[in-house]
Amino acid sequence: MSGLIAEAKAIAVLEACRRKGILLATAESCTGGMIAAALTDIAGSSDVVDRGFVTYSNEAKQDMVGVPAGVIAAHGAVSQEVALAMAEGALAHSSAGIAVAVTGVAGPGGGSAEKPVGLVWFGLALKGKPPIAERRVFADGGRASIRLAAVNTALDMVLKALSD
Q1: Which of 25, 37, 57, 107 could be disulfide-bonded to 90 (CB atoms 3.0-4.6 Å)?
Q2: Radius of gyration in angstroms for the set of CA atoms belonging to the chain, rounded to a whole number
Q3: Is the pTM of this model over 0.85?
């Protein structure tokens, strides 16, 4: 997967948001702002991108997007529950009509039998619809590969949500 794929998808996401007349927010952990960067690399994106939250630590997830500490304690930072809470929190703490969230294990360390390197949970919240989550386990081709795959998947989720 190349950066060109992410760029083409980012352009498509911006165009889809414009057609729907909505702003977009991101809440990112393992991607560290790469989704927002892919979008804001495109000139003119300021009419669509409201804000991006880089919530790398558990404390940031709680403080910035309101993920309850109990949810993190019960399920771990890399979980469906946290991804959903991050997406809903990004929507609630912004002017956006759609928010995408990513939390995962990019490696090379930090993985376990239950949560291996390459596991990424995605959350998506669209105003007026129930939030959705997706689980992916990407091949461990290295940290950069996992993070880029997560960016592309997040952009795909936004495109799919806006095309429904």
Answers
A1: 25
A2: 14
A3: yes
